[in-house]
Amino acid sequence: MPQKAMVFIDGSWFYHSRQILFDLKDETGFEIDYKRLPLLVGQWVGDALDADVDVVRACYFGTLPLNKPGYNPAKQRVFYLFLQQDCGYEVEVLEMDHRLEHGISDDRRVGVALAASMMHFASMPGAFDTAILMGGSSDYRPLLRRVRDRGKRTLLVAMNNAENRQATSPVLLVDHALFDAPPVFLDEHIDEIRLVRKELPRACKACGQTEVTTWAGVEFYCSKCRSDHHRRVRTCDTCGREEETTWDKDYFYCSQCRKEFRRNGGARAEETSFTI
To answer: Distance between CA atoms of 144 and 15, rounded to whole angstroms?
Structure first.
């Protein structure tokens, strides 16, 4: 019978580790396949434990800055919704209002939320057999000890601290009493987690001409129509969605947000479009 595992992802740590992966790959357009990531983690951990592992839930913990001068959180909201709706993650978003709160780091907020969640599920009979931590802070050591006290296995997915870029605490890596197997290093599986976009033939919405593309958006315009009409992909200032458009002003709102704006009698789309 497969062991049930849950993955607990420190989003702040993963964000910084992702940049290291991008630099190591040194490839334009490198993307991570978030949909496959929990499955891959289960396979890696299964190999480390020499057991069948079934990842029953992937929990992602991240922050969302609000009222931060010069920062638009729309794209970050879309990323969290993508993880939740398209990839099946359980996402906990910790909002940080910069007008009211100062001096509390993202790492500390995320760490507390992750620890509370892992202990909660560890205390629920049958929730999981193995807790997989994707994080790099040595602050997680007391948490891991308490989870093991409850008879659970613990595994670490980390970074190998290549080129003196310590994404993972050396203390966490050498404390072998915390884990049931050696850590799995993301940078050693970089090609496995790479998102491969498939090229597919699509019909242009304007002229009907079929063209092979990796564009996965709802609407598609061929290269000739984009050139003729100066179409380009832009990011909505409200929701962060990408859409092809000929709009050339400094600001841009996608068709969905414009529709929401009209439907709500002029209310801002961001006040009605997102609930996390």
So the answer is: 22
Final residue of a structural domain among 158, 189, 220? 189
Give the residue from 189, 213, 242 where a domain finishes: 189
Backbone angles phi, psi at 69, to 5 degrees: -55, 130
Whether 60 has a pLDDT exceeding 50, the answer reads yes
State yes or no: pLDDT of 164 exceeds 90. Answer: no
CA distance 157 to 186: 7
Cα 173 to Cα 160: distance, rounded to the nearest angstrom = 9
CA nearest to 168, candidates 157, 158, 155, 154 = 158
CB atoms closer than 10 angstroms to residue 276: 12
pLDDT at site 19: 82
Main-chain phi, psi angles of 17, to 5 degrees: -65, -35
* 256 CB-contact burial (10 Å; exposed 0-12 / middle 13-18 / buried 19+): middle
pLDDT digits (tens, 9 = 90+) for 214-258: 776 667 888 888 777 677 788 888 888 888 887 777 788 888 888
β-pairing, 3-10 with 130-134?
Answer: parallel
Higher pLDDT, 232 or 179: 179
Give which of 276, 272, 219, 267 is closest to 242, Cα–Cα. Answer: 219
Domain contains 194: no
What's the number of domains the chain is made of?
2
What element of type H or E holds 93? strand 90-97
